What we know:
Blueprint: E1 4-9, E2 12-19, H1 26-44, E3 59-66, E4 75-79, E5 93-98, H2 105-110, H3 112-129, H4 134-143, H5 152-157, H6 159-194, H7 196-230, H8 235-242, H9 246-256
Helix pairs in contact: 3-4, 4-6, 6-7, 7-8, 7-9, 8-9
Amino acid sequence: MKNDVSFIIAFEMNLWEHQSSYNPNMPMRFFIYGGRLYEKYIATSDYYQYSSTLQPVPRPICMCFYNGTKEEPETQVQKLSDAYDGEGDIEVKVMMLNINYGKNQQLMVACEPLKEYAWLVDAVRRHQNEKMDLDAAVDAALDEMPEEFVIRTFLLENRAEGKSMFLTEYNEEKVMKKERQEGFREGRQEGRQEGFQEGRQEGRQEGFQEGRQEGRDERSIEVATALLKEGGMPAAFIARISELSEDAVWKLAKTLGVAII
């Protein structure tokens, strides 16, 4: 599954996001994504925002597919208003579906490839728990995949891409873990200097913000690097996916010695 997908069908704007780490801030991300998509819709359709009559727009459907290791309910609704300090006038709701193996059975039965993907992720993690490195765990999971699986042939023919997919998810989990560790260390240091209660709280907040920004920057560079090495993608597209600026993408391409459009 791609990290994020959006499409319009039957005048519904579907926004899908895949997360291998739990993130309670998805409504804000969808709010930003949705705003950009509606701007694009206005620019490419007959929508006239200054009309004296009501102009219809596609109905947004926000879905987050979660398969992290942290135990979460099969379904939950995240709301932007949960982050407000009081009431607010803008609401965004995101339906989060747990697609780990064994969860949401009705959905899995209706979508065999998704069920098979969930099985594969579970198998890789099981082998990693047996002290295998990631490459070996992916190979072992692919080798033992049942022959009747729809995705088996594709993954065996594209084994390298399959490994890359798992490596991306693994790196994302490492970044999130790094953010938490850095936030904790910063918070403890501040707590010692300014008093346990006050310093701990301030340090945690500051450390979390710094760690999250560093983690975002690192992840953005990793994503952009992978896309640049794959080749054939314009700088604007890579910038949008990685959340780097186009100038940063061009500089990174130059550093890597990669030609881009």
